[in-house]
Amino acid sequence: MLSAKFLAFVFGSWLILMVLAIVNAGIREGFYSGFMDELAAHQASTVTLMVIIVLFTFLLLRLSGMELSAEQAVVMGVLWTLTTVAFEFLAGHYVFGNSWDALLAEYDILEGRLWLLIPATTLIAPYLIHRLL
Questions:
Q1: Residue 52 CA neighbour count, 13 Å, CB half
Q2: Inter-axis angle of helices 38-63 and 4-30, nearest 10
Q3: Tens digits of per-residue pLDDT, 24-73?
Q4: 103-127: pLDDT as tens digits
Q5: CA-to-CA distance for 103 and 120, rounded, in angstroms?
Q6: Dihedral sign, CA of 127, 55, 109, 30?
């Protein structure tokens, strides 16, 4: 189940997702932020990234030739999510200098912050797409 090939597939595809997320953030900063306030730009960017995650997962599982079991699809989602959250907090704090409070504030749905939907989408996308295919 956790073969080297499977783990390479999971973490290699996560790296591609990371690049797509960075491009999405660049579009937010270069485009959305020009005509939306900061919160609305983050919300639009979050929804856009959710769509990207689902489309990427669909194309990945459809075109890669990797035939995953349902269990492997769940493991993929868990590993993608853990890696995403670890990267966000570790790089966010130690590389980009954000405070822990600022990083945690991104998860405050009651304040309109939708970032929690990204790890949720990352978690469930592989299994849902696996079931669809």
A1: 21
A2: 150
A3: 999 999 998 889 999 999 999 999 999 999 999 999 999 999 999 999 99
A4: 999 999 999 999 999 999 999 999 9
A5: 17
A6: positive
Query: Residue 41, SS3?
Result: helix
Q: CB of 24 within 8 A of CB of 45? A: yes
* Amino acid at residue number 110: L
Per the structure block, which two tokens stand in for 116?
A: 């929690």
Distance CA 90, CA 21 (A): 16
How many whole angstroms from its chain centre is CA 1? 23
> Could you give the angle at the alpha carbon of 22 between the alpha carbons of 111 and 13, nearest 5°?
110
Structural contact between residues 1 and 56, judged by C-beta atoms closer than 8 angstroms: no
